[in-house]
């Protein structure tokens, strides 16, 4: 059967430039975007129960813009004034610049890496006298605490937000030729919304080894794994697969 429709389990790209839009045009596809997961902030009342004192820390490690948002949200809800001498360590320059939403950037001590957490760790270990707070989601990369523990950094992990499944009930009677997943949480959301989901003739695309593993654990066939040889991106892998399938169904 010729592939005509795709559901991507992520928000729709902003602007009019995206490899997905190019893919849709090339193969005359209907591509819809729908986040299968969403982020919810941990309420201040619940955070208090963790007995973590934000002001006991002299520095914060931010791995995302979401972490920044919820750190300052909780500070406001807890009626905490973040001191001017707080140091900020960000995973990338883009994340560091995002701090301007909450602080006077040029007057603060801000450090940043080059996207990878390993790069940021090189900077963190040079400031081991600091007591670090690390705002995290309930689902986070084990690399973060593992790297900090290995380097014997004095830090506190603080769960400030969590990843939850979106309500997808309106998709119950909608069928797509391909479902695209970027995280294990997306697969989990699919089955939380549709416990009796059966793959049948639907093709499953997944990006990254942890997503591939989750797809297999839920007894689904991964038809379009990415990255793949000659296709480092999800859209590249989709392009290869759709070209092959549609060529054979003409």
3D structure, described in words:
The chain is an alpha/beta fold and 250 residues long. It folds into 2 domains: 5-36 and 168-247, Rossmann fold; 40-163, Rossmann fold (3-Layer(aba) Sandwich), CATH 3.40.50.10090. It has 9 helices and 11 strands. It has helices spanning 19-27, 44-48, 65-77, 93-98, 117-124, 143-150, 184-193, 209-217, 234-247; strands spanning 5-8, 30-33, 37-41, 59-62, 87-90, 109-112, 132-137, 155-165, 178-181, 203-207, 224-226. A 6-stranded mixed β-sheet has the order 3-8-7-4-5-6, with helices on both faces. A 5-stranded parallel β-sheet has the order 2-1-9-10-11, with helices on both faces. Helix 3 links the parallel strand 4 and strand 5 (87-90). Helix 7 (184-193) packs parallel to helix 8 (209-217). The longest helix is centred in the C-terminal third of the chain and has 14 residues, at 234-247. The N and C termini lie close together (9 Å). The model has no long low-confidence stretch (mean pLDDT 93).
